[in-house]
Amino acid sequence: MIYYSNGVASAKSRELFSRAFYDQLINAKDYESCLELVLSTTTFAGEECDVDKFLDAKKQELFDFIKHNSPINEIIDFFLLAQDYENLGVICRLVKAGKNLHGTLLSGKTDSKDLCEFVKTGISRGISKEVIEAYKGMPKDLSLAQIDLYYKQKKYETLKSKMKSQIMKTLLFDILDLQNVCIILRCEKEDDFQKNRVVVGNLNDKLLDKILKRDETVLFELSGLTRQIAQIAFIKNKQKAFSLIDKLSNELPLLSIKPFAKDTDTIAPFLDYCFSCLAQLKNIKMVLSLKKNGVKCDFDNKILGVSYGKR
How many Å separate Cα 302 from the centre of its chain? Predict the structure, then answer.
């Protein structure tokens, strides 16, 4: 299955935009010309001009591709089960605010319409037991922001329990580390951090406590990507620190799976395509947004993030 999945992903990766094509988008004279270039490609041919809608449609296509072609269930959980938690958070916030759901949410392991039905009626159709338990265990007096935090924390707790292969654990733990460092930057007080933090990755409670207290000796206990992530917390310029977090969050998936690229029977090529595809959608949205607002595009300074597929 791994060889088949990697082969299919490798074939589809040929559809990803090259650096040369990004240069064409950047050099387009205006927003309309840039959008026309995007819609002229094989990948986006025939799509409507509503950018958000066609990008969401492509993301849904990727999720469906993962569901039907993933070599291991962990990848499905990493992308699709995570989406279920995010969808449930959105639905619960809308219910709390007394609003109806407008538009369609992306579907993960469960059709988003079935999640809406579950919240309304309690009828569960193919919904993961972890998601059901999270909903039933949610305190009823949470604010809108607390609902968002609750499902974020539950999502990461569940994913940590399900990631068994070394490559998926490495990927998730790096993401957890970056999340917690970001929370440390936002929450200077320990009580606030403890309320908002997610489950630990490579940075355990003891290490996170040192980072929270800005004890630089912690850096001598760390190495590689984990150390790089922790160092961000010690940057005094908050704007620069958050800018680095944004940049690293785009690059992190590829950096995490890179050490496994040459392993026998690796799932890295499949993951590389998945993250490449997501990066491409982010890049397209950003280029079009910059063009629409008359802001100069600068690929080399990473304003567009990272294009993983064709570097």
Answer: 18
**In angstroms, what CA-CA distances link 205 with 10, 138, 224, 241?**
39, 25, 19, 22
What predicted TM-score, i.e. pTM, was given to this entire model? 0.91
H or E segment and range at residue 299: none
Distance (Å) of CA 86 to CA 135, 138, 160, 192, 298? 12, 14, 16, 22, 32
pLDDT in tens, 256-269: 998 888 776 789 99
Residue ranges in the chain assigned as alpha helix (H):
2-13, 19-27, 31-39, 51-69, 73-76, 82-96, 112-121, 129-136, 144-162, 166-186, 190-196, 205-212, 224-231, 238-257, 268-292
Please state, in angstroms and as integers, the Cα–Cα distance from residue 221 to each residue in 50, 64, 181, 234, 249, following that order: 49, 41, 16, 15, 23
**3-class DSSP assignment, residue 142:** coil
